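Write out the bound-state structure for S-adenosylmethionine.
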Amino acid sequence: MKVALEGFHCVKHALRFAPECVSDVVVRDPAAVRALAERLAPDVVDLLLSRAVVGEVAHHTGVSAVGAVPSPDRSVLSARTSPLVLLDAPRSPGNAGAVIRVAAAAGACGVAFTGTLDPWHPTVLRGSAGLHYALPVLRVGPSDVTGPLVVLDADGDPSASLPGDAVLVVGSERSGVGASLRERADLVMALPMRDGVSSLNLATAVAAALYRAR
Ligand SMILES: C[S@@+](CC[C@H](N)C(=O)[O-])C[C@H]1O[C@@H](n2cnc3c(N)ncnc32)[C@H](O)[C@@H]1O
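---
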């Protein structure tokens, strides 16, 4: 399967983490893209420009490409040295992309999805700024993961801590973590909030939990 990589940051991350997956790089103005890349990502300047052809690009940064969807490394479902984030039936593609972005930044070993949202939906890819290519992104069933299951929930234990090999389960925007994963939880972890605030956005909750563990 192929996906559109729209914009400089998306193409940059794909080239940096999985250059073999990137093809059909198009730049609107090579000199402008060179200047941008030299400022923001000198490590990919030569790779980017050596593969690019000049053409029309809709994105405001003037860069686009095509990405192959890699086969994700499913070993992270059972063996890990850093947490695996499991999104339980997320609804918002933008939120899911933001989770992938922070999971990559904070050193999670992968992001797994239950439910129907396509992890490679264009809006998810836009939200991750192409960081899908930095770690495995997988579709799973609730019973595919093994290891310490830590459910994130505002009603959980604020003193719980995240084991390094945990599966960090994050609920959907509307209904939180589903019963089948909740029943298997080894820990339910809360991120304390001021009175009157009902929940954090799910990407913010993932960020707080992963960085607290770091
Ligand atoms: C927007 S919240 C979901 C709110 C939802 N109405 C519910 O019933 O849980 C999305 C997910 O982010 C996580 N989350 C949000 N705020 C949290 C907090 N303060 N402590 C722990 N997890 C939180 C939980 O995993 C939650 O299921």
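---
The two ends are 35 Å apart (CA to CA).
The mean pLDDT is 96.
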